[in-house]
Amino acid sequence: MGVVLAAAGSAVGLGNVWRFPTEVGYNGGAAFILIYLFNVILIGMPVMISEFVVGRHTHANTITAYAKLALRSWWRFEGVAGVFVAFLILSYYVVISGWTLFYLVDSLSGFLPVEQDFQSEFNSFVSHPWLPVAYACGFMAMTHWVVSCGVQSGIERFSKVLMPLLLIIIAVLVGCSFSLPGAHDGLRFLLKPDFTKVTTRVVLSAMGQAFFSLSIAMGCLCTYASYFKDETRLARTAFNVSIIDTMVAILSGFIIFPAVFSVPGVEVDAGPGLVFITLPNVFHMTFSSYPVMGYIFSVLFYMLLLLAALTSAISLHESVTAYVLEATGMSRRTAAAIVSVSCMLLGVACSLSFGPWSDFKVFGMSIFDLFDFTASKVIMPLSGIVICLFVGWKLDRNMVRDEITNHGTLRFRLFSTYIFLIRYVVPAVIALVFVNELLG
Ligand code: PHE
């Protein structure tokens, strides 16, 4: 139960509450969401099951897992790609998590005075020369602490209580958002698809978002699956994690967009700041006659968001640390410290790309956007293809069946569909979208 919750903890994070609405805003609303759902079912779940198979069968960290199964062939580089991309994501994940930490501190100190301009407050915070860097370091220190102490007793116990609490808070916030004046327009944006705006870039974004949000194709779930018990049902776990994750993402959309359409001056494609500008506004507008409620809600919300971010960051950190630790034989503490410090160096660059370094562009993207693009739109899709081909073609079919059916004690009627998907459909779909985008 604990490790399954940890897998859900890894999946549910800023990807759902912060990145999903941002992407929906950029990519035109309802049509994007439909394509996203399609990606979760058709691509996300099969890839997740495949990672579980590799992880639980080998009971080893990602790099060792692929090395064990692939022996000396090229397939073993899949493990290396996984660990690399986890490192890359962690470097910018801490930046946004740092923002969350700032908003928590800010709401604790009562940041909901009447008439506040949240947009300028956000802009002046993220472009500040050192403040966001300091908060990112603070968040990294928390992640470091948990990882270097070992994860089991602390974070697993916490997740069991906090994840349901997060869901309850989200549900209440949806209610609040629905009562705002722009609710109708927000719902139309979320529910009425306009397929004329769909381009391959939109499809690739939906795919990248599905990979990011489900934490797949970067070794985290493979590492966690290596701790699964023999009785853990892989397919069912993948299904449950995907459902919880998708639900949280969509509900977050239902919180954000009615609010976006209610707040003058905020555009749906406002980018990474969207959540940090509209949410304080929701608290402010809905609770203007009950400031205490507004206070409690904002504190609770940012606290839970921070914890959700923490469980995800831990899985990213753990995936890299586990490898460094095994490859070098050093202590867990030292390995974790090396990962934290080196990752933070990249994190500083990401953070500064919102402020003093915002004019520095590579291929027209800021450092932050470049990292996110490379991780979620290049490496993750390619990794997804390799994982599917590896499990579908290279691994012994009976071994895969044994893992998924727990040595024949479970029935998995969709086994041949699953194999068909990972052998042909998933790699073909990913490749098609990817190549199309490159050529376009
Ligand atoms: N899925 C996490 C989220 O939604 C982010 C993450 C990505 C975590 C990759 C681990 C691995 O925030």
Helix-strand layout with pairing:
Elements: H1 2-11, H2 14-26, H3 30-58, H4 62-70, H5 77-108, H6 118-126, H7 131-149, H8 152-178, H9 183-191, H10 200-214, H11 220-225, H12 234-260, H13 274-286, H14 291-328, H15 332-352, H16 367-394, H17 397-404, H18 415-439
Helix pairs in contact: 1-8, 1-12, 1-14, 2-10, 2-12, 3-4, 3-10, 3-12, 3-16, 3-18, 4-5, 5-7, 5-14, 5-15, 5-16, 6-13, 7-14, 7-15, 8-12, 8-14, 9-12, 10-16, 10-18, 12-13, 13-14, 14-15, 16-18
The chain binds phenylalanine.
Structural write-up:
It contains 18 helices and no strands. The protein is an all-alpha fold and 440 residues long. The chain is globular, with a radius of gyration of 21 Å. The protein is 77% helix and 0% strand. The mean pLDDT is 88. Helix 3 (30-58) packs across helix 4 and helix 8 packs parallel to helix 12. The N and C termini lie far apart (45 Å). Bound molecules: phenylalanine (PHE).
**Chemical compounds bound to the protein:** phenylalanine
Mean pLDDT metric: 88
CA(first)-CA(last) distance: 45 Å
Number of helices: 18
Instruction: Sketch the topology as an H/E string, one letter per element.
Output: HHHHHHHHHHHHHHHHHH
Describe the sheet with the most strands. none
Number of strands: 0
Tell me the radius of gyration.
21 Å
> Percent range for helical residues?
over 70%
Helical/strand content category: mainly alpha
Envelope shape: globular
Strand content: under 5%
Low-confidence stretches: none
